[in-house]
Design a protein that fits this description.
globular, Dna Ligase, domain 1, 6 helices, alpha+beta, four-stranded antiparallel β-sheet, 2 domains, D-amino Acid Aminotransferase, Chain A, domain 1
Length: 229
């Protein structure tokens, strides 16, 4: 199945690297130890992308997230449109530091989870998307495994995952890929790339606000790739 997708190149920092870095004073040592590793990895990424200082996304992959009892969605920091080796190193450190934030500790306490700050960090070439979507392989509201749910908005997907906008919602029948329902929202905000580093939230032009993000053809083509049909 994976060969059907064009996946942007990237690299990761394994959770084993971060063991022992759990106090503020340790992060100075972390930067020192990370610097030669990331310098080499980022140079290799430049070669793969055939770009000088490619723009990347820096994301967490915590050991205890996305389990049956907790998701940690939006709890850990994500950094988008990061350019340059030093900025990538800093973003990796900040991403890992977010595992120790007050809101993560509160969430773990609320879920009665034993504290485990183990995390790996993934660095991947950023796609400058005109539109983005989040796809659920079963309906997350009803639990219906026969339905695929797509949430979509203009711009980068950060506005969807952070709950900054009410996205369009499409309900797809998993078996015959027919479109069961389309809920087109009045979308107010989208996330775009800044000219240098980082991202920005901007108002969606009125002409696009209640325009469907995805066409029927795009939805069906996408789901055929996902289901292999």
């Amino acid at each position: 199945m994976i060969e059907k997708y064009t996946i942007p190149p990237g690299f990761s920092v394994a959770s084993s690297f971060f063991k022992g870095f759990d106090r503020p004073a340790d992060f100075v040592r972390m930067k020192y130890e990370l610097s030669p590793i990331i310098a080499d990895a980022y140079q290799r990424l430049e070669e793969k992308c055939q770009l000088k200082e490619p723009s990347v996304a820096v994301r967490s992959s915590a050991i205890d997230e996305d389990n049956p009892n907790a998701s940690f969605a939006g709890q850990f920091k994500t950094y988008l449109n990061v350019k340059g080796c030093n900025n990538v190193i800093q973003a990796i450190i900040h991403c890992y530091q977010s595992a120790f934030s007050e809101r993560v500790s509160t969430y773990r306490s609320h879920k009665e989870m034993i504290s485990d700050n183990a995390m790996s960090v993934f660095v991947q070439q950023l796609v400058a998307a005109d539109m983005s979507s989040v796809v659920f392989s079963k309906n997350p509201v009803t639990g219906d495994a026969n339905e695929i749910i797509i949430n979509a908005n203009w711009g980068l997907g950060e506005s969807i995952v952070n709950g900054k906008v009410t996205p369009d919602t499409y309900v797809i029948n998993k078996h015959d890929l027919s479109i069961k329902q389309k809920l087109i929202s009045k979308k107010s905000t989208m996330c775009i790339l800044c000219s240098e580093n980082g991202i920005s939230d901007v108002d969606i032009p009125k002409v696009m606000a209640d325009t469907p993000v995805l066409t029927d053809q795009q939805m069906i083509h996408f789901e055929r790739c996902n289901t292999g049909k």
